[in-house]
């Protein structure tokens, strides 16, 4: 079935070829190229057919279909022999260049005899000699064939490397790679890396480079102690070759790198991302390289005892590591044997064995901000969430069942964290078929134990914000306690259910805050009545009910922030404190004091809150309970952050985190501590440390099953990474997150996923991958257009999309995106972002199209002018430059690009008038003013050829800036003035 309308003219054909050239290599591009060859054959002129055949051969070559590339080239060569005049200089150059492509394709196919490969090289040499072309490219292919076969390459290398390059030589980057591989094969890692340096540093590149060189250089870098460089290049290099059939060997080397650096879990993730390569790679040589890398990884995972893990493999069935390894080994062994049979050597089998026999080079190299273990990629066990790593040696759990039950209840009364281990053990015992409940009055009936376990489960659900689940479990527990004739326990469970129910978000409420406030008020009143009517309450139960009452009012204050709700919280906290002190309920004494401190903080009195919490810390250190200290120090740290005392906050939070390690992982919210530490580190100018805390916060949330919180922390970490200029780290982190099953299945909040994708698109742009960044922005703009509840975000995304389209030269699509942004801005103003976007689009169009783009550029500026007028009318204060002066400057720059120099100078004069001369303390404005003077001086002195007034302007500006202390801003002005004087 045709993928596009059949071109009816040569113009349409050339346009279709141009559009196909923009597509990524793969089946769609290849099929379209095949159709365009068919279309070209209808025209009498053979030139369109030549162009179509060249496009088809390129699609086959870079789409990893080497069997078809020589067939297409044979047609081109026949056309050249029969009608040489059809080939102009450019087409002739392309034809002779692609002799090398055919040589490469034939090497990839073990069914092609070695004699045929040598015959083709002879044909290439004869053709080059007849055309009076230099033979360096021929000797390059002869060397590559010798290296492929496994012959002594010394002479072949010298015959190639000693010759002068020609116009038909491979690019510098590719030749550097071949020379480096020669030294690598000789065992000289240092010389190979030295040879590779221009490519690895990005100074030389091409279609395949530096991705190919990077994949080969990874292990030499490790062997020479350059692990950090290897890590950096792995992240950048892998992204350049993933899911690309023509670079499957490179993917295989990245998998091998993961296997040899303790990153087996990442290797399995990358293998899953490249699963399609098992079926899409048509080149036997590429497939051999890919499968060998896969086997190195699987072999390592199986060696670690995880052969049962599921793994992505050939389509049509499920695979374990052990099963896929056996399949891959058989296929790769067969391919190696076929190449060796063709070549008459054992080179490919030997090279494959050398890769498989390599021992790990590092025990562990942290490759990404999200290090994973094989346990992390194992299937989740449905019966329970994955446990966090133990922070300490677990408390001993009694073996005797009656003792275990008594211990669990005693610890639970105290609120002791070790109760969790006892309840967990009991839960495991009770669900077994042979469980027999002790006939012991001290233990109580089985129904009581079942209620205890339900109450514990409800508490854990509430900690995860699963309030509806928690409320139902508490109600069920209350019913069982009543069956056991335990009214005090039932009252506690029912009061907990009331508070959990009040926290369930109201559905369809016109005012969510008002609805929650009413629910908490009602819950408090119900708990008070419940406490008053329940007989026989023991002190710890009375204290817990008082704590629930105080908590309900504290949450109400947190919801409303209303001053009228402050006093009731203090009253309940004081009541709790008095009761707990009278009955020596230590945990509730500190709880009441913490509640008082929190209430001062919520009411805005942070100094008093700190004074109160200082007393709590002193009491906890003296009297306990010790497990309250980490949380209390965390709160004090947050209060100091509020007081902008980041250093003191850092100390409290660090100490809280240290003490948290003394208790079970779930006893303290270490995720919050890490998150707050990240904020403190940012205030202290320690962004790298902040990044570590953000990722650790996310890891803790993931282990606890709080995926939304985890992804929010990861999103912040990704943005910080991007802000730090660690582009590849940012992209690698986001790629890992976006590949998570619940993200791919659409189960995670779509706005969180959109934020992750937006940050990734910005990172791709920062990494100069304009094509991928633009594609992601276009997709996000289309999706966000449907966010009726958030038009401001759509305006921002559409504006950024427009700029990227402008950078790509697609100004028609850029105009459409900008119009979308303007429409969304009308509903939710984004004055500054939209003004910046429109000015940048104007600059890009004028810069790229000159006078031809001036009208459209001025249209963008006219829109920016209307945005500035709206902002002024709304009394909007921009965070950065004045919208009016920035607009005037852009009018000057746009007109200058278009050659309208008088208009440009007039606009720049206006910008200078709007800015005014900068004062001594106005560093930002000094830079903007100096740039405006510089451009005005360039327009006036160079383009309008009026150097005298330009020099007067520049000299005066230098004097003013120097007098104001802005000497750095004078440098560009002094340089321009010197140039103008030199040209006089």
List keywords for this structure.
single chain, 48 helices, 984 residues
Strand-helix topology:
Blueprint: H1 10-21, H2 27-40, H3 47-62, H4 69-82, H5 89-97, H6 99-107, H7 114-130, H8 136-149, H9 154-161, H10 172-185, H11 189-200, H12 211-223, H13 227-241, H14 248-259, H15 264-273, H16 277-280, H17 284-303, E1 310-311, E2 319-320, H18 321-343, H19 347-357, H20 374-377, H21 401-414, H22 419-430, H23 446-463, H24 467-483, H25 487-502, H26 512-533, H27 539-560, H28 566-582, H29 586-602, H30 606-623, H31 629-642, H32 646-660, H33 670-683, H34 687-703, H35 707-723, H36 727-738, H37 741-744, H38 750-766, H39 770-784, H40 791-807, H41 811-827, H42 831-849, H43 854-873, H44 883-897, H45 901-915, H46 923-943, H47 947-963, H48 971-983
Antiparallel strand pairs: 1-2
Could you characterize the architecture of this molecule?
The protein contains 48 helices and two strands. It has 984 residues and is an all-alpha fold. β1 and β2 (319-320) form a beta hairpin. 46% of the residues are buried. 71% of the residues lie in helices and 0% in strands.
Please provide a brief summary of the model.
The protein is mainly alpha-helical. It is built from 48 helices and two strands. Helix 2 (27-40) packs antiparallel against helix 3 and helix 44 runs parallel beside helix 46 (923-943).
Helix content: over 70%
Radius of gyration (CA) equals 36 Å
Number of helices: 48
Model regions low in confidence, pLDDT < 50 over at least 5 residues: 380-392
SS strand fraction: under 5%
């Amino acid at each position: 079935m045709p993928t596009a309308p059949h071109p009816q003219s040569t113009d349409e054909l050339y346009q279709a070829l141009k559009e196909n050239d923009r597509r990524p290599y793969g089946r769609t591009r290849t099929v379209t190229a095949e159709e365009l060859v068919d279309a070209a054959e209808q025209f009498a002129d053979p030139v369109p057919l030549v162009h179509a055949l060249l496009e088809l051969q390129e699609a086959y070559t870079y789409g990893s279909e080497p069997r078809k590339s020589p067939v297409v080239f044979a047609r081109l060569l026949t056309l050249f022999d029969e009608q040489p005049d059809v080939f102009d200089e450019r087409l002739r150059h392309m034809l002779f260049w692609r002799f090398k492509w055919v040589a490469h394709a034939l090497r990839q196919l073990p069914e092609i005899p070695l004699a045929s490969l040598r015959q083709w090289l002879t044909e290439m040499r004869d053709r080059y000699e007849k055309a009076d072309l230099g033979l360096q490219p021929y000797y390059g292919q002869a060397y590559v064939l010798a290296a492929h076969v496994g012959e002594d390459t010394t002479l072949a290398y010298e015959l190639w490397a000693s010759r002068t390059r020609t116009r038909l030589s491979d690019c510098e980057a590719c030749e550097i790679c071949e020379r480096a591989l020669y030294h690598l094969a000789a065992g000289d890692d240092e010389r190979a890396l030295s040879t590779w340096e221009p490519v690895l540093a990005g100074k030389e590149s091409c279609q395949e480079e530096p991705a190919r060189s990077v994949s080969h250089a990874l292990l030499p870098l490790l062997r020479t102690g350059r692990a950090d460089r290897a890590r950096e290049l792995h992240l950048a290099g892998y992204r350049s070759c993933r899911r690309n059939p023509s670079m499957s060997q490179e993917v295989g080397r990245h998998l091998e790198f993961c296997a040899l650096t303790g990153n087996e879990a990442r290797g399995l993730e990358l293998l899953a991302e490249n699963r399609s390569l098992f079926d899409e790679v048509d080149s036997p040589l590429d497939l051999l390289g890919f499968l060998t890398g896969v086997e190195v990884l699987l072999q390592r995972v199986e060696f670690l005892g995880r052969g049962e893990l599921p793994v992505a493999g050939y389509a049509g069935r499920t695979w374990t590591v052990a099963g896929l390894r056996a399949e891959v080994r058989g296929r790769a062994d067969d391919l190696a044997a076929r190449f060796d049979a063709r070549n008459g050597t054992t080179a490919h089998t030997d090279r494959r064995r050398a890769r498989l026999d390599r021992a790990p080079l590092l025990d562990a190299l942290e490759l990404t901000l999200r290090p994973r273990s094989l346990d992390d990629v194992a299937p989740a066990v449905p019966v329970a969430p994955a446990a966090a790593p133990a922070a300490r040696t677990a408390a001993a759990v009694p073996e005797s069942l009656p003792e275990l039950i008594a211990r669990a209840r005693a610890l639970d009364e105290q609120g002791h964290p070790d109760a969790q281990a006892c309840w967990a053990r009991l839960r495991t015992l009770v669900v077994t078929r042979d469980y027999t409940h002790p006939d012991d009055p001290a233990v109580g009936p089985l129904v009581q134990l079942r209620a205890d376990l339900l109450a514990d489960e409800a508490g854990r659900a509430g900690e995860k914000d699963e309030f509806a689940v928690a409320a139902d479990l508490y109600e069920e527990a209350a019913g069982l306690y009543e069956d056991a004739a335990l009214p005090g326990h039932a009252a506690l469970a029912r009061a907990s259910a009331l508070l959990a129910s009040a926290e369930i978000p109201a559905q369809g409420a016109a005012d969510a805050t008002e609805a929650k406030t009413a629910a908490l008020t009602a819950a408090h009143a119900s708990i008070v009545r419940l406490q008053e009517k329940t007989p026989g309450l023991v002190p710890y139960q009375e204290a817990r009910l008082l704590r629930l009452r105080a908590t309900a009012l504290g949450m109400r204050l947190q919801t409303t922030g209303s001053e009228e709700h402050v006093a009731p919280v203090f009253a309940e906290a004081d009541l709790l404190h008095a009761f707990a002190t009278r009955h020596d309920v230590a945990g509730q004494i500190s709880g009441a004091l913490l509640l008082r401190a929190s209430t001062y903080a919520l009411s805005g009195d942070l100094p008093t809150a700190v004074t109160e919490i200082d007393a709590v810390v002193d009491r906890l250190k003296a009297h306990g309970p010790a497990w309250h200290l980490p949380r209390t120090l965390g709160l004090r740290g947050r209060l100091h952050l509020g007081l902008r005392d980041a250093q003191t906050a850092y100390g409290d939070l660090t100490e809280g985190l240290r003490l948290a390690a003394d208790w079970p992982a779930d006893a303290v919210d270490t995720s919050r501590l890490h998150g707050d530490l990240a904020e403190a580190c940012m205030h202290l100018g320690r962004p790298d440390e902040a990044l570590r805390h953000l990722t650790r916060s996310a890891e803790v949330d993931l282990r606890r099953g709080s995926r939304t919180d985890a992804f929010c922390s990861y999103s912040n970490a990704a943005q910080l990474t991007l802000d730090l200029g660690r582009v590849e780290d940012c992209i690698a982190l986001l790629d890992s997150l976006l590949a998570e099953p619940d993200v791919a299945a659409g189960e995670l909040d779509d706005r969180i996923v959109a934020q992750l994708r937006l940050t990734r698109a910005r990172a791709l742009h920062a990494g100069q991958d304009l094509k991928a960044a633009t594609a992601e922005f276009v997709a996000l703009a289309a999706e966000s257009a449907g966010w009726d509840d958030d038009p401001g975000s759509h305006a921002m995304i559409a504006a950024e999309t427009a700029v990227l389209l402008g950078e790509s030269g697609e100004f028609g699509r850029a105009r459409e995106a900008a119009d979308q942004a303007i429409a969304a801005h009308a509903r939710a103003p984004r004055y500054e972002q939209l003004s910046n976007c429109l000015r940048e689009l104007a600059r890009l169009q004028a810069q790229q199209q000159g006078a031809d783009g001036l009208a459209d550029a001025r249209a963008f500026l006219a829109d920016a002018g209307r945005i500035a007028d709206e902002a002024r009318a709304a009394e909007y204060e921009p965070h950065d430059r004045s919208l009016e002066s920035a607009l005037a400057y852009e009018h000057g720059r746009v007109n200058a690009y278009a050659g309208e120099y008088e208009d440009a100078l007039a606009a720049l004069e206006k910008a200078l008038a709007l800015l005014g001369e900068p004062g001594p303390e106005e560093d930002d404005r000094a830079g903007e003013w100096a740039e405006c003077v510089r451009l005005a001086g360039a327009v006036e002195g160079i383009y309008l050829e009026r150097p005298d007034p330009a020099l007067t302007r520049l000299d005066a500006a230098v004097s003013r800036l120097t007098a104001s202390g802005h000497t750095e801003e004078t440098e560009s002005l002094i340089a321009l003035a010197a140039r103008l004087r030199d040209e006089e």
